[in-house]
Amino acid sequence: LFQFLDGCPVPYSFVAKKLNEVIKNIGLDPKHYKGHSFRIGAATHASKVGFSENAIQNMGRWKSDAVKRYIRLGSFNVALD
């Protein structure tokens, strides 16, 4: 769902590293914050603006129907994984 200006997808490791740097710089404990939330937010936003579940699955590079757990359209959802 996220990509660099050249169109290449942003790898999870890049997001996780940058997120940890920012969290540390503002004085918070990075163990409480994960880049995984960006996948949830991006998948949910894509669904809200009209992308199909199949399109979101392709954009997020999900190989299974796990994408369904990332689309949060209700007011509050909790994953029990």
Structure explained in plain terms:
The protein is mainly α. The chain contains 3 helices and no strands. It is globular. The relative contact order is 0.13. This is Tyr recombinase domain-containing protein. InterPro entries: DNA_brk_join_enz, Integrase-like_cat_sf, Phage_Integrase-like_Recomb. One of its GO terms (molecular function) is DNA binding. Keywords: DNA recombination.
Shape: globular
Counted up, domains total: 1
Main pleated-sheet profile = none
Strand content: under 5%
InterPro entries: DNA_brk_join_enz, Integrase-like_cat_sf, Phage_Integrase-like_Recomb
Keywords: DNA recombination
GO biological process, one term: DNA integration
Protein name: Tyr recombinase domain-containing protein
